[in-house]
Amino acid sequence: MNEARPDLSVALEAYLGYRVHPFPGNHWGAVVAALGLVRAQEIEVPMLGVLADLDAIEPDWRRQSLDQASEAAAREIRARYTDVDERAGEALFWAYGYGYK
Question: Which of 32, 46, 54, 94 has its CA 20 to 30 Å from the CA of residue 64?
Fold first, then answer.
């Protein structure tokens, strides 16, 4: 059971492989396992939109460390998308930071 978490949050965490894999990836099968095929298909486009928006956020390396930039990016996404909960925000922080390592 997903503890009544928003499907978008469940999908983001599963897709990225947060707390399951050593680095972020594209784990569509985990989304299907977590939500079922129909709900996974319904959330796929919004989920990919969130990830595209995350990828489009440019860090300011003159003022931000990697952790600060990752925190700011995750915070910005959570402000834009109310269905991104704290755990999904942590997954986004992890994925964003990993992308710049």
Answer: 46
Q: What is the pLDDT of residues 54-77, one digit of tens each?
A: 999 999 999 999 999 999 999 999
Which 3 state secondary structure label does DSSP give 63? Answer: coil
Distance, in Å, from the CA atom of 99 to the CA atom of 77, rounded to the nearest integer, reads 16
Give the distance, in angstroms, between the CA of residue 81 and the centroid of all CA atoms in the same chain.
11
In contact, 10 and 32? CB cutoff 8 Å: no
Q: What is the mean pLDDT of the chain?
A: 96
Listed residue (65, 67, 50) closest to 16, CA to CA = 50
Nearest Cα neighbor of 11 from 28, 3, 1 is 28
pLDDT tens profile 4-20 = 899 999 999 999 999 99
